[in-house]
Amino acid sequence: MTTDMLPPDSRKVLTPSALNRLVRELIEGALPLIWIEGEICNFVRAASGHWYFSLKDAAAEVRCAMFARENARLKFRAANGARVLARARVTVYEARGSYQLIIEHLEDAGEGVLRRAFEQLKAKLQAEGLFDEARKRPLPAFPRRIGVITSASGAAVRDVLSVARRRFALTEIDVLPVLVQGAEAPAQIAGMLRKAAGSNRYDVLLVTRGGGSLEDLAAFNDEGVARAIGASPVPVVSAVGHEIDFSISDFVADLRAPTPSVAAELILPDGDALQRTLAQCETRLRHAWQRRALGTAQHLDHLAIRLNTQSPRQRLAAGRERMDAIRERLLRARALVHERAASRITQLRVRLLHQHPRSRMEQLLRNNTELRRRLRVAWTRNAERRNLHLAELARALNAVSPLDVLKRGYAILFDESGRVLRSATGVRGGERVRARLADGELELKVDAADTQP
Predict the structure, then answer these.
(1) DSSP state of 429
(2) pLDDT in tens, 295-340
(3) CATH of 133-269, one of 3.40.50.10550, 1.20.1420.30, 3.40.50.10490, 3.40.50.1860
């Protein structure tokens, strides 16, 4: 028994709304997004801004709707008879049970061909690794010369030169003129890239042009141009079109800039900022040098003071001063002893004159004799102590005296200007020197064979 033979209450019954909803869900699940190419017909622009039209070919047509938010972004005017390429979602208009396309993107069919070629070439080169970040090189910080590959009469070259003059006028800019649009443009751009890269003249190459349609930018979506950029030994910057435009050369280049002006700013350093940095470095260097010079001068003064206090001549002078002071003290002590002895003798003589008894006289004479003896003994002992101390000072003075060293067979050499020679380095053959010995000086002449390199 088939389902058609079952009573109505035992079969699943759908309403038109449920059926249309089921069909919509099935279609949207099977065809989430498609590309379709056709000719526009029955075009209607509603007051809400939405577009309603059909796409047809020689055998069929399909209804389409494009809402105002999407069609406001289009760069061309849609009209009846225009052949277009559309990206759309397939759905069902449930109220009428008819399927239609909801258009998300619309472009001229000719541009669509270029877009497909663009995507295919992009996928191919990306698979080969030409877009890998690992192969991209950093730009030099201070390029000396830049080659700009562009049209000599376009706005792009004027923008680049204007930014270069303002930002860093020391860098040389060479304009390498090529066609940037048309059938011959790709070959000229690729050839100029190879020629400029092989000249070893440039630090950076800039490939650029102003904005335009996808067809206008086709020369920079060429495989030959892309491979010439990838093979360049010189870093390449690509600045093609406006900020929203992307080309194959942008992906292959070492750096992509949204506009020619921005490319010049990315390549060239900021001259004003560099000048400020140099001024700061100069100030820091000058202050550091002043601090270093002051510290070095103070260190030299300290070394000079130490050298003067520790030199043999200074120590000899100090020893002489000490010896003279001891001699003077010794003479004063001797004079004082004589003065005290004379005074004591005078006192004894006076007492002797006033005491007539002989016994007292004899006693005084004995005292006088004893005092003289004690004076001689004290004088002798004091003189011996002083002589011993003086001998010790003389030995200490001789120990640091270079003259005592000379007595042991050494000599001191002086050059013609009187400076002491401490090394044979720098003494030339035939030069005259003086040798100071313990008992005099000798004039010597240096033999050429005795000098050292």
Answers:
(1) T
(2) 888 888 888 777 776 667 777 777 788 888 888 888 888 888 888 8
(3) 3.40.50.10550
